[in-house]
Every structure is written in structure tokens, then in C-alpha cells.
Specification:
- Helices cover about 30% and strands about 15% of the residues.
- It is α/β, with parallel strands linked by helices.
- Strands 1, 2, 3, 4, 5, 6, 17 and 18 form an eight-stranded mixed β-sheet that branches. A five-stranded parallel β-sheet has the order 7-16-8-9-12, covered by helices on one side.
- It is globular, with a radius of gyration of 24 Å.
- Bound molecules: NADP nicotinamide-adenine-dinucleotide phosphate.
- The site of NADP nicotinamide-adenine-dinucleotide phosphate has 26 residues, from helix 5.
């Protein structure tokens, strides 16, 4: 337990001895927050976690829509910090379903007795840095206040649902849903006319299953997405056991790859193989690799010509699956391959061959309004008993700026990030001492297995806090020059990749008014990890330690 040295002061914190004081407050009890709690305990820090949901799980607690599963393989999308845990847990499918992932997270909470330090049904609304006391005053929706020397934001990069304000929504008489706020009891669409707005990862997973159940499904597509067959399957007998014979080696290998997932490209360039060979390789990877199809050749995201080849391959695949050429043409993506976050699917394109599915192209004409009976475009009303707004998230920054976070001299994070998020390593922010973000903007985050990314961050943060303790230091803060340089570096590596070539949530382009900055770090995990280690090796280079 670290004792906060509280000087005599007339500040509200100092004059409120009844306030609870802990070493660390963690916001969020998903994958990141739970490991942070485990690690803080191990380091001897008293810790309190605040979680808005009524149980652990984060994303996997809220997202319960039909078809919800992870598109990173289970053996990689899981914790590696405890060998006993990774030996004991049995994944049943190549890509785990939401219920299985949630059961895993709940098992972790039970196994390490984590729930006792978590306040559920508690949303953090504000965190204010107390300069004199060198601590954070954290406030919750119920008005409770806690002070903490450190604040760890594990609030998730894709946790703040985006719900566009369609005119007339209030007049709609049917039911409305968002994948990230799905009813826990599930939804039975049998006999119902369902409309779904959006064709991102969430919708692409949900559409085939809802189409099987509903009387009719109308899909409103603004931008066609690239969806790769998930190639999901049950894990073969002995397959998981083989992984477990040397799981740490597999984990270590993953850290040598930009995405933390071991997958060697078939070659350096799609342009350097014959047309027949390229087609054969694309086809093999298309059938078997799921999301990693994007890594078939190393230059797909960096060379326009290579990207055009893979884009064309996927468009031809769509044409071969979808019976109606006009519908296939609407579903064929116009953007560069991979500039929006890739989706994986099970029977998505095939679903548009069903008689009870209608595709509405809203790329040129947008939805005018929502009326009592459904969705209105021009003179046409698409009647629906239920509308699913699969319209995504205010990604990377939304959960953070939703809170009223104020650093030194009352500086608000919302104001600081008005022109786009600035951070050092995606971990710390100048002006916000002793606050760390997990999978924050400026870190690899959504471009790696986010569980691995979270563990990496938590380990770095724990080492940093231990260093402060060992050196009797009060606080650590990202220095302005280092933060500025990291922002510039992020923009440079982002600009070099075709991932930044179109509107996407990576850039904040899905939220009206949000500044366009490529938010995840695109330099790859290996370079990022090296930088994090070098910073520590050089005495927390770029940070200011008080
Ligand atoms: P998303 O990728 O942002 O997709 C949102 C969809 O809604 C887009 O098709 C978007 O069109 C559309 N949309 C938004 N506003 C609209 C409007 N006013 N009118 C018409 N269409 C509108 O969101 P998501 O599908 O929830 O996925 C977000 C991320 O979460 C994913 O990229 C992934 O990182 C993660 N995720 C992962 C999994 C998985 O592991 N399998 C599953 C779900 C989500 P535009 O493209 O034109 O903006």
C-alpha cells in the first residue's frame, strides 16, 4: 500500500477525511481492467475498480447480439499471464462465441477472486487531478468520490455506442436495438420484419442469423465492406493440447509479429508472383485464414497496385457467391481493401440470395427519417417491427471523453483532444499525471489481439508504478516534446499505410465533427514494444517524474 503524502491544504479533498483513498482506481472490468486489478494486487497496490455493467466482461458483457464472436482466434484472444489458466481453459471453437468468451472472463474473475474489489453498476463520470495532493479525485454517477494516486483507464476503445440522431426516431412505434447494448434475455425476431442499419463487423455477424429467424430483413448499407470467410470450426481433438504443450513459446512468437498473431505472409509482394500463383494463394488464404487473409502478401496495405489486386479478388468472390448481379455490385466494396477494419463472416454474402432479405443502398441517397412504421427514403417507407442500429462506436476516445477528466490546472481532456487525441505511446497524456490508458489512441490497440495489447500495457504500467515507488517519486507525466514527437510519428506511419485511405472509425470519420486522426498506432507491435522498452531503459525517457 502506498501512502499518499497529503499536505495541509484547504482543498476539498484534504478537508474530506471521510473520502476513501486507494493507490489505484481502474475504470472498467473487461479484459484490460481485470488484468490490471490482478497485477496491481500482485504489486501490493490497494485498488478499486469501477464498472458500469453489473458483472465483468466489458465488450463481451454488453455485446450479446446474434452471431457475436471474436474474429481473433481463441488461442490468441486470451490471457497469457498465468500458465495454469491457459493450461486449464478449454476453447471449443477456432473463434469463440460471445457466451464462451464471457464465461472465460467470469472464470478468470472467480479464479483470482477479483470481484471483491470491483464496484459494479457504477459509472465513473469525472476524474480530477488534485495538484497539491498529487492524486486523482474520481467521481461516480451515484455521487461517490474516491481519491487515488493513480488512475488506469481500461474503459475500452470500442465501448461507446454511436447512435446517429435520425429525424423522427421518437415517433417510431417498433423496438430499437444497438449490438453493443443488446438485451441480456435475447431477442426473438420470429415472424418480425427487421431492419438493420450498417454493414460493419457487428452487422455482418448478425445478418445471416437474423435473416434465418425473421420474416423479413432489410439491410441498409452506406459503405460496402470487405468480409472474409471466418473459416470457423470446432477445434479438432488434440489441436488445443498441441498448443498447450508449449503455449509460452507460441505467445513469445506472436510478439515477433506486427499484429501479435503469428502469420507469415505467403510472400513479400502480390506483384512478384504470376497471376495463376497469386490467384491460387489468395484462394487458399481466403478459404482458411479468416482475418489474417489481410496478411496474404506483405505489401497489400502499402502498395496501391497490390491492394488493387486483392480488392479485385474479393469483388470477384462476392460476384461468385451472390446470385443477383445487381445486388453483388452493391455489395462489392469500392474502397481500398483494408482501409476500413476488415470483417469476417459466416455466410454473409450468401444471405443476400434469400427471398426474405432486401439490400437498400444508402450510399447516394441517405435515410431521410424514421417514421412510425419504419425507415423512410424519399417516397418509400421500409416497414419494420424492429430496427437494429448497427452503427458502430465513438472509437478509441469516446469512452474517455465521455468522462469529465481534468488534469493539471483544470485542463479538460475533451479540450486537450479537441484537434485529435495526443498521447505518448498511447499510454499517458501530457498534463494528466499518474493517469494511464490501456489500448489508448496512439497504441497498437485494435490492430493487435487486444488481450495481448492490454497485458503488455498493464505490465508496463505496473513496472512504471513500482519504479515510482522505489524511487520515492510522486508522479509521472508524459512530457510535451515526447508527446508531440509521438503524435507526429503516429501520423507518419499512419500515412504510409492504405489503412488511412478512406473514412473509417480508425480516423474518427464515423462521428460527425470528430477530428480526423488515425488513432491506432500503425507501426506494428514489434516496433511499439521496442520503443516502450527503450523508454524504460533510458530512465523513462520523454516522461517527467516528480
Ligand atoms: P462499424 O464498423 O463502425 O460499422 C458501422 C456501420 O454503420 C457502417 O456500415 C456505417 O457505414 C454504418 N452507419 C453509421 N452511421 C450510419 C448512418 N447514419 N446511415 C447509414 N449507415 C450508417 O461498427 P461495428 O460493426 O460495430 O464494428 C466496430 C468495430 O468493433 C469493428 O471494426 C471491430 O474492430 C469491432 N468488432 C469486432 C467484432 C469481431 O471480433 N468479430 C465484432 C463486432 C465488432 P459507413 O461505413 O458508411 O460509415
Amino acid at each position: 500500500m502506498i501512502m499518499i503524502d497529503t499536505p495541509e491544504s484547504a482543498s476539498p479533498v484534504a478537508s474530506s477525511p471521510s473520502l476513501d483513498t486507494v493507490d489505484v482506481v481502474i475504470v472498467g472490468a473487461g479484459f484490460a481492467g481485470l488484468y490490471a486489478l490482478y497485477k496491481m494486487r500482485q504489486c501490493g497496490f490497494s485498488t478499486r475498480v469501477f464498472e458500469a455493467g453489473e458483472d465483468v466482461g466489458g465488450t463481451w458483457y454488453w455485446n450479446r447480439y446474434p452471431g457475436c464472436r471474436c474474429d481473433v482466434e481463441s488461442i490468441h484472444y486470451s490471457y497469457q499471464f498465468d500458465e495454469g489458466l491457459q493450461q486449464d481453459w478449454v476453447w471449443t471453437e477456432r473463434y469463440a462465441t460471445q457466451p464462451e468468451i464471457l464465461a472465460y472472463i467470469q472464470h478468470v474473475a472467480d479464479r483470482f477472486d477479483l470481484r471483491k474489489d470491483i464496484d459494479f453498476n457504477t459509472r465513473v463520470t469525472a476524474a480530477t487531478w488534485q495538484d497539491q495532493e498529487a492524486c486523482w479525485l474520481v467521481e461516480t454517477g451515484s455521487g461517490n468520490k474516491v481519491r487515488a494516486r493513480f488512475c488506469i483507464m481500461a474503459s475500452g476503445p470500442l465501448s461507446m455506442p454511436n447512435k446517429p440522431e435520425f429525424p423522427g426516431l421518437g415517433t417510431y412505434k417498433g423496438d430499437t436495438y444497438h449490438p453493443g447494448l443488446w438485451p441480456h434475455e435475447g431477442v426473438d425476431f420470429t415472424g418480425k420484419r427487421v431492419a438493420i442499419i450498417g454493414t460493419g463487423s457487428s452487422a455482418i455477424q448478425a445478418i445471416p442469423l437474423i435473416a434465418e429467424q425473421a420474416a423479413h430483413l432489410t439491410v441498409f448499407q452506406r459503405t460496402a465492406n470487405y468480409a472474409i470467410p471466418a473459416a470457423n470450426r470446432p477445434l479438432e481433438p488434440g489441436e488445443l493440447d498441441a498448443v498447450k504443450t508449449d503455449y509460452p513459446a507460441l505467445r513469445a512468437k506472436g510478439k515477433l509479429y506486427p499484429t501479435t498473431i503469428p502469420a507469415d505472409p505467403a510472400g513479400p509482394s502480390a506483384l512478384e508472383v504470376s497471376e495463376e500463383e497469386r490467384e491460387r494463394i489468395f484462394d487458399e488464404w481466403w478459404q482458411t485464414k479468416g482475418l489474417m487473409f489481410q496478411a496474404t502478401f506483405a505489401d497489400l496495405m502499402y502498395n496501391d497496385d497490390a491492394n488493387a489486386l486483392v480488392s479485385d479478388f474479393v469483388r470477384r468472390k462476392i460476384q461468385s457467391i451472390v446470385d443477383d448481379p445487381d445486388i453483388a455490385a452493391i455489395l462489392a466494396p469500392k474502397n481500398s481493401f483494408g482501409c476500413k477494419r476488415m470483417c469476417v463472416d459466416t455466410d454473409y454474402y450468401k444471405t443476400f440470395n434469400r427471398d426474405n432479405v432486401t439490400l437498400v443502398d444508402v450510399s447516394e441517397v441517405s435515410i431521410d427519417r424514421i417514421a412510425r412504421d419504419g425507415i423512410v427514403i424519399g417516397d418509400t417507407t421500409y416497414e419494420a417491427d424492429a430496427i437494429i442500429f448497427a452503427t458502430g462506436y465513438d472509437a478509441m476516445t469516446g469512452a474517455l471523453t465521455k468522462m469529465d477528466i481534468r488534469g493539471k490546472n483544470g485542463l479538460s481532456l475533451r479540450d486537450k483532444w479537441h484537434e485529435g487525441p495526443a498521447s505518448y505511446l498511447g499510454l499517458a497524456i501530457h498534463g494528466f499525471p499518474n493517469m494511464f490508458i490501456i489500448n489508448g489512441p496512439g497504441s497498437p490497440s485494435a490492430l493487435v489481439s487486444m488481450v495481448t495489447g492490454a497485458e503488455h500495457h498493464v505490465d508496463w504500467i505496473a513496472d512504471c508504478m513500482t519504479h515510482l515507488q522505489d524511487t520515492c517519486s510522486h508522479s509521472i507525466e508524459a512530457g510535451k516534446p515526447a508527446e508531440d514527437a509521438w503524435v507526429v510519428h503516429n501520423r507518419e506511419v499512419g500515412a504510409a499505410s492504405l489503412r488511412s485511405a478512406c473514412d473509417s472509425w480508425y480516423l474518427g470519420a464515423n462521428i460527425p465533427g470528430k477530428p480526423r486522426v488515425f488513432m491506432p498506432y500503425l507501426g506494428g507491435f514489434v516496433a511499439y514494444d521496442e520503443k516502450c522498452k527503450q523508454v524504460v531503459h533510458d530512465g523513462y525517457e520523454g516522461f517527467e517524474i516528480a
